[in-house]
Amino acid sequence: MAEEKTPSPQNRGGPGGGPGRGRPGGGRGGSRGGRGRDNQREEGDDLLDKLVHINRVAKVVKGGRRFSFGALVVVGDGRGRVGFGTGKAREVPEAIRKATDQAKRKMVQIPLREGRTLHHDVQGRYGAGRVVLRSAPPGTGIIAGGPMRAVFETMGVQDVVAKSIGSANPHNMVKATFQALQNCSSPRSVAIRRGKKVADIVSRRGGAPAEAQAKE
């Protein structure tokens, strides 16, 4: 008489011992690990990112208080391209990831003089925030505080003098800084707009030789 074989827990289907538990890469742990590897590949490019501010927000519900976090991140390539983004989530890493992705999508190109400073002095304003940015000679460094320093470092500026004379809110300061940077113009763009040569624009500024400036 043949004896009956009882199916083992490994071969038995259902939620207790389904094949998904023994499958490599399956289940929650496998998917979470995959997301981590993808994030590492995305962050392995030549972009620089800096966390400017983290804000914790509490929402009062029936069972108590529910916390969420808001992140402000600045991303740049160190060669004039820079962007900022905000993100909000229940966990800090997720909020930072959302802000970083938004900053990468909103990157803009800012013209730089000799690849190290601004072409001219400029002012920016957003809400109650007001900033003043001034070009500086070589060796000055980045004279700026807080959120503005993060913008200049990721953008690749080496010499600049900046001052915030308005709101100290990081969001307003960053947005005012970007508003000022987008008002910067290079000699080439000014010459094209006015129908003149680059040498005529540079000679009036009294800066470096026209041949060097014409390449910018």
- What is the helix/strand order? HHEEEHEEEEHEHHHH
Strand numbers in spatial order across the main sheet: 1-2-3-4
Taking all Cα atoms into account, the compactness measure Rg is 26 Å
Specify the CATH architecture of the largest domain: 2-Layer Sandwich
Quick description:
The protein is of the alpha+beta class and 216 residues long. The chain folds into 2 domains: 48-108, Double Stranded RNA Binding Domain (2-Layer Sandwich), CATH 3.30.160; 111-208, Ribosomal Protein S5, domain 2 (2-Layer Sandwich).
Sum up the structure in keywords.
8 strands; 4-stranded mixed sheet; Double Stranded RNA Binding Domain; disordered C terminus; 4-stranded antiparallel sheet; 216 residues; Ribosomal Protein S5, domain 2; alpha+beta
Overall description:
With 216 residues, the protein is of the alpha+beta class. 35% of the residues lie in helices and 26% in strands. The protein has two domains: 48-108, Double Stranded RNA Binding Domain (2-Layer Sandwich), CATH 3.30.160.20; 111-208, 2-Layer Sandwich (Ribosomal Protein S5, domain 2), CATH 3.30.230. It has helices spanning 19-22, 27-42, 92-105, 147-155, 170-181, 187-194, 198-205, 210-213; strands at 48-61, 64-76, 81-89, 108-109, 122-126, 129-135, 142-143, 160-164. It has a four-stranded antiparallel β-sheet with strand order 1-2-3-4. Strands 5-6-8-7 form a four-stranded mixed β-sheet. Helix 6 (187-194) crosses helix 7.
